[in-house]
Amino acid sequence: MPYLGGEETVRELRRALSNPNVQSDPLRYRNTILKVIRTMSQGVDVSGLFSEMVKACATVDVVQKKLVYVFLCSYATLNPELSLLVINTLRKDCQDPNPMVRSLALRNMTNLRLPSLVEYVEQPLTAGLRDRAACVRRVAVLGWAKLHNLHPSSEIDAAVVNELYSLLRDPDPVVMVNCLRALEEILKEEGGIAINKPITHHLLNRLKECDIWGQSEVLRVLQRYRPQSEDELFDILSLLDSFLVSPHPPVMAATLSLFLSISSNLPVISLAALERVSGPLLAACGSGSREMRFAAVCHIQLLLRSVPGLLGPHYKRFFCGYAEPAYIKERKMQVLVELVNDENVAMILDELKGYCTDVNTDTAQAAISAIGRIGRSYSDRCLQILTGLLGLKQDHITSAVVQTMRDLVWVCPQCSDTVCLALDGCEETLQDIQGRQALLWLLGVYGERISTAPYTLEVLIDRVRSEASLGIKMELLTATMRLFLCRPAETQDMLGRLLHYCIEEETDMCVRDQALLYYRLLHCGIEKTREVLQGRRSDPSLGVLIGRPAKPVSQWARCFNTLEPLSQGAVEAESDSRGSPEHVTYNSKPNADLSDTLSCSHIEEVHSGSDSAMRCSDSSTNVLASSIAAPLSLSLSPAVSPEDFEHLWLQRQALHTERGAEKIEEVDCAWIEECVRCPAVLHCSPQSLQAAMQLVNIQTLAFTPQQMLPWRVYLYTHTQRSHSMDAPNTTLILGELLCTGEANQKSGVKKGTADSEAGAEGKEDQLVRKEMDATADRLRVSEDGQEEEEGIKVILNQQPKDDDALRQFLTILITVLNTLSSEKD
Amino acid sequence: MISQVFILSSKGDHLIYKDFRGGAGNDIVSIFYEKVTALTGDQPPVVMNHKDIYFVHIRQGGLYWVATTTAGSSPFTITEFLNRLAALVKDYCGSLSEKSVQMNFALIYELLDEIVDYGYIQTTSSDVLKNFIQTEAVTSRPFSLFDLSNVGLFGAETQQSKVAPSSAATRPIQSSREQGGKSEIFVDVIERMTVVIGSNGLLMKADVEGEIRVKCYMPSCSEMRIGLNEEFSIGKSQLRGYGAAVRVDECSFHQAVRLDEFDSHRILRLCPSQGEQTVMQYQLSDDLPSALPFRLFPTIERDNGGRLLMYMKLRCDLPPKSAAINVCATIPVPKGSVSLSQELSSPDQSAELKPQSRAVVWKIARFAGGTQLSALFKLEVPSLSSASMLEVGPVGLSFELPKITATGLQIRFLRLSPIQPGPSQRWVRYVTHSDSYTIRI
Q: Name one GO biological process term (chain B) (predicted).
């Protein structure tokens, strides 16, 4: 900031400093110097006073000395010659009997940052390393690092490095930590200090003496260490266990980083550590400092990538306080979306609904898009809220709602009816570009169901000359083209006008090229155009995969406890993940429609890939099916869409309960419930489960994310009895796999009292055993680890009834689940 | 590793600038301030970057406390450091404000010099620092307006002789030594409530975060024993006695606290160092032992003339002898509300319409327990529709409850040993703040 009258002030100060009367009065002298520093920190250039200040340095008054040093260190680089004058005073101070004066002189000598002074500094620094007072040694150790950075290329004195290594055994913990820091800097080119076993164990043993800053520094450096044996690894882990639940977030985070890096090839341990650290992280989320809260919430987002169900029971901790800043609210909403399950969805939606009318538009829009994301799994409730919000007729809310609806129908096409009804009249409220673009897209795709669509477009086409936004023009072109295909009579004229304008008058190349493209496309005939513009976008049966698959810890472990999760970029990456089903899913069963509807070359590749994959899966199906039960074969056609499935399922469930009550036997429908014990399936990723099921021609429709409770999978298949030659004896089986375990709540004193520590060690031991044990025992041990009985309930529903087929199907299903369980690990 | 630390006033004035590593451009502070002010609203994100330089900042006392660092640094460490720095400045200067920082800049430079060397945090313990810090704090004149801003913790209670004046704890820790000031110790039990009440009046969520803070102005104090309620219990399973137990879910202690008498007698033993420290932190979720302090009964309707009528009845359910102070209800109202006319049930309340935050702010300076206040707000909203009713609410309530803890935690006794030679005073204070008290309509 420019400071007016700077020169005048400097002149005045110089006059005062060189005034002998002032110099003889210690108090006045000190006050004048104070004034200089004050002016300096206000941003005025007072470097002209350097020589006067050098004189002021020679004093017995420690406060004055400190003040002068603040000045000298700031301006020394501008006046290297004059700085030589200070060195004498400083070197004299290094001999002072008072250790405080010695450390002060040594620190400032190294802070001058003048390469020319190095030769004068080395001797006092060497002496400083052997000083009696710890505070001098602290300064001297770091002094070497400063010196080295002045001449980064120069040769390092091996004697100094050795002395620094030996000072790691200094009785003062700060000296020890400073040695670590200095060696890290001096040996940067060799990859930092050599972390070997004796040094590691020495540092770990002295960890308790350090304060939290020292602890986090040591833990950070130790991340490079790789234990030589598993025994050593587990010794280290149990030693560090109490630090993992430290009430100080820096220590807790540094410990977790260390855990993740040294146990990077033991995922079980990493997951156990994440669970253990969730308590302290939650506490940090409620910290009094909102910046600390923010850091904690951002890191919880990282944890949730790997363990989606981790904080499910604590979802209320992520409700926003009304006075919290927008950046925390936004992150908390992102967490809430991740934590949604059947039990809490009503509460979370109710809470999010309250934020939609927030006075801060960013918060309001974030809340609306959060509701949209939940809408992928709970579309009815969410659409009801979104539709209600349109009634407010406020531009920022309407814009966010329309955009959210567009994203939602892309993933859940079954919502389109509700969306079409809601859109009526939105165009009057919409102001911003993104909102209008979303509306245009919806009008184009669902134009035949929105009666006013052509009129809305016509208004925009009439105004296209004054339209500034490129995006709107492009979207308008596409929407009009799509609408023309389903409502040609009403749209033909306006499409002609629009194409004419865009080709003849529009100056922007992109718009012109696109208009030309459409124009030529129309020449190819209406059928071709329809194929290109209205082709099926995706396989609807894959649109309902709920939740993202859990990612391995290693994917984010590197950026844990760095600034990366807090930076804005992370938010954008997060919201980018809203993809169409095409991006979310992988190759699947061949779909006859795909090949003739999609003409894009990229997708053709995908398709051919899936075709070949299918051929081999076909053969394996035959093998598997024949080995298990010869007469039964499973098939996926005709496909059951998610909507149909939901409809049938609910219908039959109702039927079943009714029947159960009245004991009436129905002929053509069977309903059985079985319990299967294969807990490891819970930890399978949805992808592998779906792939395994498809090998035997069972289609999975929807999943809860792994490790979330209650855990559910919905699936269906058609059975065919091949031995009955006469009639095609096919049945449709719908199924649900359900696991309702109780998450064990943790509570109690956090500070390591004796018994809790013992418990933790016990748990650790258990983990050790788990790793060591032979595969045969895996199942039992992992159950112990879970500390609960886990059985998966299989509910099957068959129509028409065919007991044998159902039994055989169940055998296949159980075989698949058991295979998965044993493969997992 | 911290490259620079600087403190800016909210208007962007440079108060303190310290460069630990060198090599930063002179304009680094201005770059930060430009970035902060370029963002909409008053709420910039905690971390911002300019090329390779990362700015981490916190806001305390209306000031920006900024550290620059590299991308690989721990956000927890830097944030905690800045918080600790602000706390130390508060300890040494008495209070945190632009003025106190400006007056004590020499002291703060001295502090920074001792706390951080070459970008590495050396120590933040006030016990260690007191040996190094030579500069004396400059405090502002006793009866300046600036002091009035600190009234609040016990603002309503200062007349009574048994209560310490609210400014007693806002003085520099070192002045006690030189001025022969009173040797005092303050033990504060501070709780923050987070409550959400549903539109049907049911409690949706209630969290309490509490801490015991000790602020020590004694030059020498070897040991202090703090006795908590005997029936204090931690966790759900562990219940003691039959009476109304004081329970918390989780609890953690300062490293220096010795817990050998905690299990049997609920006594914390520690040697307090000078300045402020948090001795114990605890949390309680969803299961408050006492009734909620406030209930709201709203009636909202539209009248024929297109006006919005809000009839608010607010009941304070505290025990009759206690009272809440600085109660402030923020009621969001529809966009485009033009004017407000009000009928308040007593003269010590006030209400106004804040168009930019789109809310009616209803303030009650003192609200006695067991009483009820009501207010009728008539809002002129030109474009009132039935959907606008959605925009009313949720009501946010902020308040302070002096002498009350939501968990019921009490301090039975406070003993110092050995007995202090001179006259010493021990103060125990309780206060509950609202962190976020939301009532849906």
A: vesicle-mediated transport
Amino acid at A135: C
CA angle (B410 as vertex; B408, B412 as ends), nearest 5: 150
pLDDT (0 to 100) of residue A682:
67
Residue of A146, A220, A357 lying closest to B390 (CB–CB)? A357
Residue B115 near residue B83 (C-beta atoms within 8 A): no
Write the pLDDT tens digit of every residue in B124-144.
Answer: 888 788 888 877 777 754 444
Q: Which of residues 393-412 of B touch A (CB under 8 A)?
A: 393-394, 396, 398
Q: Calculate Rg over the CA atoms of chain A.
A: 36
| Maximum CA extent, chain A | 122
Question: Which pair of structure tokens corresponds to residue B166?
Answer: 């609210």
Encode pLDDT of B317-332 as tens digits. Answer: 998 888 999 999 999 9
In order of their start, the domains of chain A are: 632-655+668-740+789-824 (3.30.310.10)
Q: How far apart are CA A809 and CA A645, in angstroms?
A: 18
Candidate from A107, A113, A213 with C-beta closest to B121:
A213
Say yes or no: B118 contacts chain A, CB-CB below 8 A. Answer: yes
On whether the CB atoms of residues A551 and A707 are closer than 8 A, the answer is no
Q: What is the mean pLDDT of residues A104-127?
A: 88
Above 70 in pLDDT, residue A310? yes
Contacts of A252 in chain B (CB under 8 A): 76
Candidates B181, B97, B184, B189; CA nearest to B146 is: B97
Are residues A213 and B198, on separate chains, in Cβ contact within 8 Å? no
ipTM of the complex, rounded to two decimals? 0.83
- Mutation site for B-interface testing, chosen from A39, A291, A294, A562 by largest number of B Cβ within 10 Å: A291
In sequence order, the 6+-apart residues with CB closer than 8 A to the CB of A23 are: A17, A29
Let me know how long chain A is: 825
DSSP SS3 for A769: helix
The amino acid present at B48, given as its one-letter code, is M
| Residues A39-88 pLDDT 10s | 887 778 888 888 888 888 888 888 888 888 888 888 888 888 888 888 88
Average pLDDT rounded to a whole number, residues A481-509: 91
Strand B246-248, strand B232-234: pairing: parallel
Q: What 3-state DSSP class applies to A277?
A: helix
Whole-angstrom distance, CA of residue B117 vs CA of residue B21? 9
Q: How far apart are CA B422 and CA A509, in angstroms?
A: 87
A367 — pLDDT class (breaks 50, 70, 90): very high
| A563/B198 CB distance under 8 A | no
Nearest in space to A597 (alpha carbons), one of A526, A542, A528, A544:
A528
Q: Which of A212, A289, A388 sits opposite B390 (nearest CB)?
A: A388
Percent residues over pLDDT 90 in chain B: 30
Q: Between chains, do A291 and B253 touch, taking CB under 8 Å as contact? A: no
Q: What is the pLDDT of residues B406-437, one digit of tens each?
A: 988 999 988 887 766 666 778 899 999 998 89
Tokens representing residue A646 in the block? 């939901």
Cβ pairs bridging A and B (under 8 Å): 244
Is-contact A508 A470, C-beta < 8 A?
yes
Contacts of A747 in chain B (CB under 8 A): 234-236, 249-250
Chain B segment 30-49 residues within 8 A of A by beta carbon are: 30, 40-41, 43-49
pLDDT > 70 in chain A, percent: 78
Contact A747 B249 (CB under 8 A): yes
Name the closest residue on chain B to residue A394, using Cα atoms.
B335
Give pLDDT tens digits for B249-274. Answer: 888 888 888 888 888 888 999 888 88
Phi/psi of residue B374, each to 5°?
A: -140, 160
Identify which of B74, B192, B209 has the shortest CB distance to residue A253: B74
Within an 8 Å CB–CB cutoff, is residue B117 touching chain A? yes
